[in-house]
Every structure is written in C-alpha cells, then in structure tokens.
C-alpha cells in the first residue's frame, strides 16, 4: 500500500514504512537526531512537539510531549538502543515514561543511500499482532506514522 509516497507493509506484529527522499543520508540522519529539527516535523498532521530532554546516545533517553490539534498533550519517552551515524537509529518507545501509557513498541529507523538520495526504512515492532491492531484502532498509529513521514518530507523541502 502506498500513500503520501510512503510504501507500507504489515506483517504480523510489524509495520514497515519506506520512502525515498532526495537528500543526503547525513542530512536525513541529522533531522532525526537533533531536537531543533524534530520540533519542526515530528508527529502526525496538526501536532507540535516540545522536547523535555534528549540524550542522543546508545542507552540515552528522549522525553517529549506531542501537543495534539485537539489540545490534548501526549507525553512520550524513548530509549535509544542502537545508534550508528548515519546508518540507523533503533529505539524503544516506553509509553509516557510515567508508567501510565499503554503503548510500547520498538522502532528501527534505517537510512540507505539510494541513487542521489536516501531511502528511509522505518520498522515498528509491537509485542504481538493483537497489540498492533489495538494500538492502530485506538490511536490510528499506522495512518499517523504515514503522516509523520509525510511531515518529514515537507520539512526536508526547506533544504533543497
């Protein structure tokens, strides 16, 4: 399935998103790793972002709040598990970081050189197929991720 130039594949408890960007791998990695860039594009349509703290190292944490267009704030906490610049960023989404969130998954963000640009491969891995289905039904996770990647694309237009 392709929407917003995002190819999406669902297999069991995993969702794979792929999109080509006409920018260097180094730039694409940078906009995924620096709070000042993330504030400009992170999240689905209509969301804004506030980073509380970010330690972009293996084992480091990123705590942030996604401000929804409905006025609701969504606290998030991520732990980076494996970073290799400019090749990939792996992390665990730990919910809201306060033990009150019901959304936990792992993500692999891979940056592959492709011709003059870079292919982004984003894999989300949920504890089970049922959990993926529940999170998608409750939060619109798959559509939100497509919009997330679409907003990244819009932001990258500023660098051309």
Short description:
InterPro entries: ASHA1/2-like_C (IPR013538), START-like_dom_sf (IPR023393). With 160 residues, the chain is α+β, with helices and mostly antiparallel strands.
Major beta sheet, specifics?
9 strands, antiparallel
So how many helices?
A: 4
Shape: globular
Instruction: Summarize the amount of helix as a percent range.
Output: 25-40%
Q: State the CATH topology.
A: Alpha-D-Glucose-1,6-Bisphosphate, Chain A, domain 4
* DSSP E strands, number: 9
Give me the side-by-side strand order of the main sheet: 1-2-3-9-8-7-6-5-4
Enumerate the spans where pLDDT stays under 50 for 5 or more consecutive residues: none
Can you tag this structure with a few keywords?
160 residues, alpha+beta, Alpha-D-Glucose-1,6-Bisphosphate, Chain A, domain 4, 4 helices, globular, START-like_dom_sf, ASHA1/2-like_C
Write the layout of secondary structure elements.
Elements (H helix, E strand, L loop, with lengths): L1 E2 L2 E6 L2 E8 L3 H9 L1 H7 L6 E7 L6 E7 L5 E12 L3 E7 L9 E11 L2 E9 L3 H11 L1 H16 L4
Antiparallel strand pairs: 1-2, 2-3, 3-9, 4-5, 5-6, 6-7, 7-8, 8-9
Helix pairs in contact: 1-2, 3-4
